[in-house]
Write a structure and sequence with these properties.
about 600 residues, alpha/beta, 7-stranded mixed sheet, 18 helices, 19 strands, about 20% strand, methyltransferase activity, methyltransferase, transmembrane helix, Methyltransferase
Length: about 600
C-alpha cells in the first residue's frame, strides 16, 4: 500500500510542478515588464544579489557578524580570493530613498506611531531583510549641479523634478519654475520680500553692532526650525553665520533636498519625541518663521528642547500670527506661550510687527529664584544635557552646569592644515575653485578637518560617532556645525547631496561592532553626488577591500598615498581618493564623464 501511495503522489506531483512553474513564469514576465527599462539595467548589474560575504547592516544570521566581516578584511585565510559582486540598480521609484525615513516602510511594517507626536517623521530604520542593496539611480535627465554661489538662486529642475512647492507657495516667493531651472527669489512665508531684508530687521531689532546679524562675531551658529527651502540660512552665510536648517520629510517633502541642492547646510529632522542630535548650548539663535509647531503641547516640551540647545543669552526669533494677530484663538495662544516662557526665565528682547524675539538668561539665578512647584521643573541634576542619540525629550529646564568643563583638547590645527592641503593638492587636477560645496566629515573628532577648510567656499557637516567622546560640543564651540550619528545605520539626508566625503577610520570603527563595510559603501554612494569625491583614510586591509568594489559601484580611484605626506604610514593608515562616475539608467548606465 505504501508503494502504491508513493506512486500516486508522484503522478500528482508532475502537474503540480508544471502549474507552479507556469505561475512563476507569469510573475517573472509581469514584474519584468512592470519594471520596464530598469529591468535590463538591474540585470546587467546582477539581479541575483546575495549576501555571500555576510556583510549586512548589523549582525549576520548566526550572530557572529564580526567574524564574517574580519574575514572580508583579510583577517582569515582566503581574503585575496574575494571578488565582490555587481550591484543591481534600484527601481526608479526609490531614486529619493532615505532608508531610515521611508514612509513606505512604516506602512508595510504597520508600526504603531502617534501621529500627533510626529513619530511618523522620526527615524525608523529597516531590519536587515528589508534593506535595499542596490544603487540609487539619478532622475532622468540629471545634470551635474549648478555651482555655488549661483546655486543659491537656481538649480536644475531635472535634478529635483518636483514643482508642487512652487505652485503651493507661489504668493510667498519660495521658488519659481523658469524653463529647465527652478529659481529661488529668497522669499519665505513671513518674509515675502526677501530673507536678506528680514535678517537685517532682526539685527536692527536686537541693536546689533552695525546692524549686522553676526554682531561682531558673537552670533555664529543658528538653528532654523521648519526652514522651508532654507533661504533664511542661505542668506545668513554672507554674514559669516552658519545655520543648521532643519525640517522633516513632511507634506513639503523635498524642501531639505532643495536646500542641499542649492548648497545650503540642511538636515532632515523633526521636533517630535527624541532629542535633536545636537549637544546643549550649541546655538546663539533659534528661529521659527511660521514653522507650524505647537509649542504649548506636552507642557512646552518642544520649546524646552530649544532652550536646551540655546547658549546662555541666546535668542529665539519667532515670526507667527500669535505674535501680532488679534483673533481670540491667537490671543489665547499668545497668553499661554507668554506664561510658559516667563516661567522658563526668558525675556522679550524685542517685538515688532510679525516678530517677537526672546532672550535666554545668562545664569541660573532666575531658575533658583522661582517659587517652589513652578512648572516647568528643572531637569534632574544627574541628567546629561549632551546625551542625544536615542534619548527622549523631557519637559524640564536644563540649568547651566556648575561642573567645570574639564575635557582637555588640542585642535592640532597645524597638522590638519597640512593634511587638508595635501588632500587638495591630490584632488586639484580634477576640480576648479567651485567644484566642491557640500562636504561631510564622517568621523569628525573635534572639527579640525572642517576648520582647515575655512578659506574654501565650502561648508562641512561634522559627524561625530554616537558611542564616542562627546566632541560635538567642541565643534559647536568653534563656530562649526554637525550632528551625532551611527554609521551602522543610514544617514538622514536625500540621495546625491554631498560633493565630498572624508572618512577617517570609519570602516575600521564599524568593523569592531560587526557592521557592514558593503552597506556603508552603498550608503556613501547614495548620499554622494555624481562626480563627487571620497577621501578614505584607513588601514591598508580596508583600502584593499574597498578597491575591489570600485567597478561595481561605478567609482574610480585616482590616488593611493601614505596617510602623512613625506613619511611612513601612521599605524598602517593609507589614503584612497575616489571619484564617483556619472551614470544614467536611461542612457543604459553609460559612463558620461
Amino acid at each position: 500500500m505504501r508503494g502504491r501511495a508513493d506512486g500516486g503522489q508522484k503522478r500528482h506531483l508532475v502537474p503540480f510542478i508544471c502549474v507552479v512553474l507556469l505561475i512563476f513564469g507569469f510573475l517573472f514576465i509581469y514584474f519584468g515588464g512592470h519594471r520596464g527599462k530598469h529591468a535590463s539595467a538591474a540585470l546587467d548589474y546582477g539581479t541575483k544579489f546575495s549576501r555571500s560575504l555576510g556583510l549586512g547592516w548589523g549582525s549576520s544570521d548566526d550572530g557572529d557578524a564580526s567574524k564574517t566581516y574580519n574575514y572580508a578584511l583579510g583577517k582569515e585565510d582566503g581574503y585575496e580570493n574575494i571578488t565582490p559582486k555587481s550591484f543591481p540598480v534600484c527601481d526608479d521609484r526609490h531614486m529619493e530613498l532615505i532608508p531610515c525615513l521611508d514612509r513606505n516602510l512604516i506602512y508595510q511594517t504597520r508600526l504603531k506611531l502617534d501621529l500627533s507626536l510626529m513619530e511618523h517623521y522620526e527615524r525608523h530604520c529597516p531590519q536587515t531583510e528589508r534593506r535595499f542593496n542596490c544603487l540609487i539611480p539619478p532622475p532622468s535627465g540629471y545634470k551635474v549641479p549648478i555651482k555655488w554661489p549661483k546655486s543659491r538662486d537656481e538649480v536644475w529642475k531635472a535634478n529635483i523634478p518636483h514643482t508642487h512647492l512652487a505652485h503651493e507657495k507661489s504668493d510667498q516667493n519660495w521658488m519659481v519654475v523658469k524653463g529647465d531651472k527652478i529659481h529661488f527669489p529668497g522669499g519665505g512665508t513671513h518674509f515675502h520680500y526677501g530673507a536678506d531684508k528680514y535678517i537685517a530687521l532682526i539685527a536692527n531689532m536686537l541693536n546689533f553692532s552695525n546692524s549686522e546679524i553676526n554682531n561682531d562675531g558673537r552670533l555664529r551658529t543658528v538653528l532654523d526650525v521648519g526652514c522651508g527651502v532654507a533661504s533664511f540660512g542661505g542668506y545668513l552665510l554672507s554674514s559669516n553665520v552658519i545655520a543648521m536648517s532643519l525640517a522633516p520629510n513632511d507634506v513639503h517633502q523635498n524642501q531639505i533636498q532643495f536646500a542641499l541642492e542649492r548648497g545650503i547646510p540642511a538636515f532632515l529632522g523633526v521636533l517630535g519625541t527624541w532629542r535633536l542630535p545636537y549637544p546643549s548650548r550649541s546655538f546663539e539663535l533659534a528661529h521659527c518663521s511660521r514653522c507650524r509647531i505647537d509649542w504649548l503641547q506636552r507642557d512646552g516640551i518642544l520649546l524646552l528642547e530649544l532652550d536646551r540647545l540655546l547658549r546662555p543669552g541666546g535668542f529665539f526669533a519667532y515670526s507667527s500670527p500669535e505674535a501680532y494677530a488679534q483673533d481670540e484663538e491667537d490671543l489665547r495662544i499668545w497668553r499661554e506661550m507668554s506664561a510658559l516662557v516667563e516661567n522658563m526665565c526668558w525675556k522679550i528682547a524685542a517685538k515688532q510687527n510679525q516678530t517677537v524675539i526672546w532672550v535666554k538668561p545668562l545664569t541660573n539665578d532666575c531658575y533658583m529664584d522661582r517659587a517652589p512647584g513652578v512648572l516647568p521643573p528643572l531637569c534632574r541634576s544627574d541628567a546629561d544635557p549632551d546625551a542625544v542619540w536615542g534619548v527622549q525629550m523631557e519637559a524640564c529646564i536644563t540649568p547651566y552646569s556648575e561642573r567645570e568643563y574639564t575635557m582637555k583638547y588640542y585642535y592640532i590645527y597645524e597638522n590638519w592644515q597640512l593634511r587638508v592641503d595635501n588632500y587638495w593638492n591630490l584632488i586639484s587636477p580634477k576640480i576648479t575653485s567651485n567644484t566642491i560645496r557640500n562636504v561631510m566629515d564622517m568621523r569628525a573628532h573635534m572639527g579640525s578637518f572642517a576648520a582647515a577648510l575655512r578659506d574654501k567656499d565650502v561648508w562641512v557637516m561634522n559627524v561625530v560617532p554616537h558611542d564616542g567622546p562627546s566632541t560635538l560640543k567642541i565643534i559647536y564651540d568653534r563656530g562649526l556645525i554637525g550632528t551625532v550619528h551611527d554609521w551602522c545605520e543610514s544617514f538622514s539626508t536625500y540621495p546625491r547631496t554631498y560633493d565630498l566625503l572624508h572618512a577617517w577610520m570609519v570602516f575600521s570603527s564599524i568593523e569592531k561592532r560587526g557592521c557592514s563595510a558593503e552597506d556603508l559603501l552603498l550608503e556613501i554612494d547614495r548620499i554622494l553626488r555624481p562626480t563627487g569625491f571620497i577621501i578614505i583614510r584607513d588601514s591598508r586591509a580596508v583600502i584593499e577591500l574597498i578597491k575591489k568594489y570600485l567597478s561595481a559601484l561605478h567609482w574610480e580611484f585616482f590616488a593611493v598615498v601614505n596617510a602623512e605626506p613625506n613619511s611612513e604610514p601612521v599605524d598602517g593608515e593609507v589614503i584612497l581618493l575616489i571619484q564617483k562616475k556619472v551614470w544614467l539608467v536611461d542612457e543604459s548606465l553609460k559612463d558620461l564623464r
